[in-house]
Hints:
The structure holds two protein chains of two kinds.
Chain A: H1 5-13, E1 29-31, H2 38-47, H3 52-65, E2 90-92, H4 106-114, H5 121-125, E3 134-140, E4 143-147, H6 150-155, E5 159-162, H7 163-169, H8 171-177, H9 188-196, E6 201-205, E7 214-220, E8 227-228, E9 231-236, E10 241-249, E11 256-259, E12 262-267, E13 272-279, E14 291-302, E15 308-315, E16 320-323, E17 326-329, E18 335-344, E19 349-352, E20 355-358, E21 364-373, E22 378-387, E23 395-404, E24 410-419, E25 425-429, H10 437-445, H11 450-467, H12 474-481
Parallel strand pairs in A: 3-7, 6-9, 7-10, 8-11, 9-12, 10-13, 11-14, 12-14, 13-15, 14-16, 14-17, 15-18, 16-19, 17-20, 18-21, 19-22, 20-22, 21-23, 22-24, 23-25
Antiparallel strand pairs in A: 1-2, 3-4, 5-6
Helix pairs in contact in A: 2-3, 3-9, 7-8, 10-11, 11-12
Chain B: H1 3-8, H2 11-26, H3 31-47, H4 62-65, E1 89-94, E2 97-99, E3 112-116, H5 117-123, H6 138-146, E4 151-155, E5 165-171, E6 176-178, E7 181-186, E8 191-200, E9 206-216, E10 221-229, E11 235-244, E12 249-256, E13 261-270, E14 276-285, E15 290-299, E16 305-314, E17 319-328, E18 336-345, E19 351-360, E20 366-374, H7 378-386, H8 391-407, H9 413-431
Parallel strand pairs in B: 1-5, 4-7, 5-8, 6-9, 7-9, 8-10, 9-11, 10-12, 11-13, 12-14, 13-15, 14-16, 15-17, 16-18, 17-19, 18-20
Antiparallel strand pairs in B: 1-2, 3-4
Helix pairs in contact in B: 3-6, 7-8, 8-9
Amino acid sequence: MVAVQETIDQVKAIDVDQYKYGFVTDIESELAPKGLNEDIIRFISAKKSEPEWMLEWRLDAFRRWKTMEEPSWARVHYPKIDFEDLHYYAAPKTAEGPKNLDEVDPILLDTYKKLGIPLSEQEILAGIAPEHRIAVDAVFDSVSVATTFKEELAKAGVIFCPISEAIRDYPDLVKQYLGTVVPVTDNFYATLNSAVFSDGSFVYIPKGVRCPMELSTYFRINEQNTGQFERTLIIADEGSYVSYLEGCTAPQRDENQLHAAVVELVALEGAEIKYSTVQNWFPGDAEGKGGIYNFVTKRGDCRGDNSKIAWTQVETGSAITWKYPSCILRGDNSVGEFYSIAISNGYQQVDSGTKMIHLGKNTSSRIISKGISAGRSQNTYRGQVSAHRKAKNARNFTQCDSLLIGDQCGAHTVPYIESKNATAVFEHEATTSKISDDQMFYCLARGLNEEEAVALIVNGFVRDVIQQLPMEFAVEAQKLIGISLEGSVG
Amino acid sequence: MNAEARVQGTQAEQGLIEQFAALKASGESSADILAVREKAFGAFEAAGLPHRRVEDWHYTDLRSKMRTAFPIKEAKSGGVLNIERLNACVFTLENGRLNEALSSFGDLEQGVIVRPMSKALAAQTPEAFGTVATQDDALVNLNTAFMQDGLAIRVKDGVKLTKPIHIIHINSEGESASYPRNLVEIGEGAEAVIVERYVGDNDAAYQINALSEIKVADKGSLIWVKLQQDGEQAQHIGSTAVHLGEEVEFDHFTLNTGSQLSRSQVFVACAGENSKIGCRGVSMLSGKQHSDITLLVDHAVQACESREFYKSVVDDNAHSVFQGKIIVAPHAQKTDGQMMVQSLVLTDDAQVSVKPELEIFADDVQCAHGSTTGDIDEDLLFYLRARGIPEAQARQMLIIAFLSEVIEEIDNERVVTLLEDLVKEWLEAKKG
């Protein structure tokens, strides 16, 4: 079957030449010299006024990184990256040091306003904009320029701050958890990140606290020839809940830029973390020139019993995406979820998916992935589901659909399914009729047709998260979810 | 795996290098064939034995599993292992060498030519030789480098064979290796059923690397059944490479019960439109068996239909691996490909690794894949037990039913009966 017209139009609307966030903010930046060596790492560490142990950690990572090779197994092709030809640190000159919101350079505030990110608390607090309240950590190149609602959150005991601040102010928490989900030597890019990460967000939700508002980090790459290496660490203590959103954009530039982030989530007993991403990095122009290389390691650890981690991602940007948000289901009865919509246009290459590693008893996971490729793009779903010997009664349901628009693009599915015990039940389906017979029946019995029913069910999984995205393109994201499944292929 | 070790190679790689040098020195091959062998061995030597870092070998690390490479030892086995109920034309290879006394060249039907591969190669290399198995694959290369003997079969245009051809590979020598090589050409509009069966001595640790090249011309039809029932200590690695013309009907079936370690590769290339392909298989594993089925169906042209359906029953400490890939080339519109892999895991020590892959470059296609992994359904078991059937028997019934679903898709009654009997035999043997 060929894709329906409506879908084609919707995908067209977000084609690479329609990129809206390609403007450059003209601001004076302080850059680290190009290249990567121990001095650069010392420079970054000093810039952040880090304690000695952190510097050692970075240097150790750097030494290990030097012995590693770039991974080549993903279905993406790009010229070799010259890691010496990058600035590993870039910060707006005016953003040095911690600041109150009203001290932040107006140019920066303006940038975020243009991107549709509300950085002003006053209006919201005063009730002028009574919409959803979202605390935002805005990261500009290598530094966090503002974090909103910090005091408000502190009242609930929630820590939400740039990670560089957390390293100084909450060293014990950072030491306890940093690198425990994504080990320093996990992979080439994670190790590089460990050595040179500049900023990112740190979140700690204390025991039993339901975070009073959505937390959000907005990443913006502005400077030329830089790499952005952010590091996010979220810890949800026993019985807590947090919903976290991440957004990213970058200016339109001719050269490729590297973004290699590491995100670590820790859910302790009974905790729940919802992590949503709207990734809209500059995808390169219509000829495939420029764009961000998005090489990201994201992993959540359901460390305690009855914990839950859900990843939701809407991927429309980046020249190359190499990203597998994963869940380690360590605690008994823990739940991992992954909902993804990846849309590629132009010359984009996407190799994305998830890993669900079942270690504990009665763990369950669900993967819903929709890939849509148009233009000359290649879109690959790569997912792994594995059950350890002790993961009794592990359950997984995977559904991945892909849709091709035009005959110049490709859609690929590479699932790895590994079961090591008899009680694990894994299902991998590529047909749309198999979401859940009960749910389908319920909808059909109420007069919806099959396609509407499927859209409704998929919507049900992601809508509540997507709708609350504080960004302009949340509207687009929502449109995309409603995209017709008609004509989809395995 | 440091650089130095790599240059030296593993013990098995060293062994192969020495054996190849000896083969060259023996002067048995003609200059032409020697050139073919050298090219293949050169390609093998450059990459070495595949290991887990090679994506296609992730689950079957041949470098660590194949510690030594045994030399070719040709000897008579003396066994006759025909399956009477097939009523077939039988050819027997012993330790890789065709035994003409145990081969029924005389019973052949009109319109089919069968020659020993060794003679075919010595006289004049058949035109199609080496044109189907063109993959740069370690197993294909090794077989080409060391190939001993086998059958060159040609069914002439329009000839419909009434009797199956049954190729039996018997291996009885311990610490030996054999490299059988077949070439099968099915003419335009011709029809054939070919069963190849691998059996061997349970006490003998032998290695077998078999390769069959199959070419089916337009409107031809072929059912190919591979029964891998090698001895308990055997290492079986084998490849089937297939090239299909237009409007072909091709069915491939693998029954996997033998060997300590096995890897069966099937490469199907659709070169003509409107062909129908069925690739199916059943693996029944117990003890410490490791069995790998790797399948590649390449829809290079429009409007072909393929069905890939594999099931495995995994008991004890066994490990079942399935890697399947459907490729739909750009412009291969109207392709219809459906892949299904189902595994029954009977114990907590058993392992299943499945990778059903789709690689699609055309937009007007229908492709799907599915996979399920789990134990026998408790509800079904309860249903049968509630009707007074003892648990062991109920489980057996359910396993038979599970596997029959694949077997029954073969459009040949004799083959279906044979396979169903073999499933029952395996279950009986396991019970004892």
